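Workshop exercise sheet. Pairs work together: one partner reads the sequence aloud, the other fills in the structure field after running the prediction. Swap roles for the next sheet.
Pair: D.N. / O.F.
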Amino acid sequence: MRCILPITLACASMWTATGAAQETRIPLCPGLTIVTAISQKEGDYESIKTITSVDPGKVQLKYSSEQPPEQVGGGLRIRKLNVPRIIRVNDLVAATQYEQIFGTNIPAEMPGTTAIGVSRAVLLSLKTKGEAEVGMFDIPSLPGSSKISGDSKQHPSVFDYTDTYKLKRVEATPVMLPLIVNDLKTQVPTIHATGRSDGYGYRAEFFFLDDENNPLALKWRLGIAASTGAKAGGDRDTLQVIKIAYTCNAALNSQSWLERMLAQTGRADIYSIYFSFNSDELREESEPTLREIADIMRRHLDWKLSVAGHTDSIGGDTPNLDLSKRRAASVKNALVARFGVNASRLVTDGFGRSRPVDTNDTEEGRARNRRVELVRMQ
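Structure field:
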């Protein structure tokens, strides 16, 4: 495993997951994938942040989202966004500004900012002093394709659109937050803080992973019930991380979790296969999991698998049933065409929204219901 980082940052942290027999790690290293759910009236969609490389000075990531379609000309087009981001390791240690916005007009590198959470200094301040200041960004979508400057000495720059939130820790002990980590539903410890912004007086709430080495922002609300820009009295902006996956320490295990589950129980729910919005098109972030399934099939030549698709409850029964069947077929087709798995060893099915494993009333619950299920056939 190649973790980061400088001497000031360790490569991983750990805790014992609820109901799990072993410790869970979320290391900041290449392959770490963070999935955020965004809810719109057309349905949920997911943004994906993937750490692509790490070196002693910088961490690079890719941001990808595929939003509900917009009207273009005479038809509809999925709104796709793929942009890079570079975070300096020194900023992971000490920065007080968290640039949470991704867009084509946003520069890839903005010294003095973090991108997927706060710095070690901010988390430690909340834990030791009970308070901290965090700069958040409200960058408008500017016309044209040119990027706004990431240099604080130039104007206009991204730093002209910051608002500082003065935060105070709420509970004296960590708050456990539900999360899917490497396809397992678990709970992780977070530091819960609330506060107001200096500029507009907006109220905000944050939950940061309680990990000095990787203080990810797992949930936040900005402009709570703000009168400007809020929808139906809601919040101006929100974030909810629902799934995290990584393969950073795969070499340390003789057998992956997925292989163990299939060997021991004969089934496994997969959350690290990603599809375009309301589509059976596989997103490229699915590649590591597809490769892992193919490797497992090569190690167990006597295994045959049933691949089943499941959806959330948004939409009608018939469209969801059709979508789930098409998504299962896409997984099989990828395993056969790209990874050489014999087609006779895979069968597919889909159950739409008929077999939920969680509530459909929350983003987190719907995210658990959207899944690919593998069942080992006798």
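Discussion prompt: The chain has two domains: 14-245, 253-377. What would you look at next?
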